[in-house]
Amino acid sequence: MTYSIIARDPMTGEIGVAVQSRYFSVGTVVPWAEAGVGAVATQSFVDPSYGPLGLELMRRGHSAPEALRFLVAADPGAAYRQVAMIDATGRVAVHTGEQCLEEAGHAIGEQVAAQANLMARNTVWRAMLDAFVRAEDDLATRLLAALDAAEAEGGDRRGKQSAAMLIVRARSTGKLWVDRVVDVRVEDHVDPVNELRRLVEIHRDYRGRVQERKTLMDVLKV
What Å distances lie between residue 183 and 27, 63, 116, 163, CA to CA? Predict the structure, then answer.
């Protein structure tokens, strides 16, 4: 009942996940990311442990394809899972189990992957990938474009409820609150993607004002 996208921005090295689902508070389950390590999107009869375990494997030096392969091989419920991973260098891997509810599938591009299950049409994941590739501006804007494309193709056939976006820096500062460039969730809303967009814009404005104040303070110290 979920569609998501994971991607790395080759210009900044930032890595992000965006997701929408007919599921309450999807942001607490699907998206996982760690600066300097990678990101995971775990969905479809979801096993949330794929998130922290996948990040741990990538933290230890395994590529995203290796990490996903290890976890799928050890999971007796793998046929029902849909999981995507991307590592800090942009290597991508996706698993869509054969028992995922139709329409289900995924599409992989350069440092990006889109995946969906229980969709209205089997065109959703390809449309997401194409929209992301065509979009310009920062990673958040491109992730939102992919979510918009999913909705335009019919999206989740059961409807809409929650959405989330998580973007982390290319390298860790050792401070989680600094490493997370965007961490925004819509828990329950009639139009979660547009509400997510509104919150991302508020987040941008807030970060901009904070940076302006920091710059001013640095100037005053001189």
Answer: 9, 24, 21, 11
**What does pTM read for this prediction?**
0.93
Q: Sketch out the chain's domains with CATH numbers.
A: 2-221 (3.60.20.10)
d(CA 191, CA 162): 8
The HSE-up count of residue 211 (CA atoms within 13 Å, CB side) is: 8
Question: How far is it, in rounded angstroms, from Cα 146 to Cα 155?
Answer: 11
Q: Is the peptide bond before 103 cis (omega within 30 degrees of 0)?
A: yes
Give the up-direction half-sphere exposure of residue 161: CA atoms within 13 A in the CB hemisphere.
Answer: 14
Q: For 158-179, how does the pLDDT look when each residue is reduced to its tens digit (9 = 90+)?
A: 889 999 999 999 999 999 989 9
List all residues 6 or more positions away from 151 whose beta carbon is below 8 Å from its beta carbon. Answer: 20, 160, 193
